[in-house]
From TrEMBL:
GO molecular function: transcription cis-regulatory region binding
Ranges of residues in domain HTH myb-type: 1-34, 35-89
Keywords, alphabetical: Activator, DNA-binding, Nucleus, Repeat, Transcription, Transcription regulation
Any Pfam family matching the protein: Myb_DNA-binding
Name of protein: MYB transcription factor AN2
Gene Ontology cellular-component terms listed: nucleus
Record-linked InterPro entries: Homeodomain-like_sf (IPR009057), Myb_dom (IPR017930), Myb_TF_plants (IPR015495), SANT/Myb (IPR001005)
Domain annotation Myb-like: ranges: 1-34, 35-85
Domain of life of the source: Eukaryota
Protein transport is among the record's keywords: no
Amino acid sequence: CIQKYGEGKWHLVPARAGLNRCRKSCRLRWLNYLRPHIKRGDFAPDEVDLILRLHKLLGNRWSLIAGRLPGRTANDVKNYWNTHFHKKLSVIAPHLHP
């Protein structure tokens, strides 16, 4: 459906694809999960290192960080951070992460 109508016409997707979703849900699902060039699987050590360095520089600006990681979405980067580092950093430096 996206290939036929393009990425900008999200209001057409649910009805034409027979989905019981709103257009926002269709858009987010496409952007975060279904796009062809999204990288799946574990983060490579160099990606993890880059996330750590960029987070120190940019903070929680996930879209800017993801822009430096080809194939990774801001949602992937944020989820990786919250799963692997957020709690660890809270224990190590509680004054930095309330």
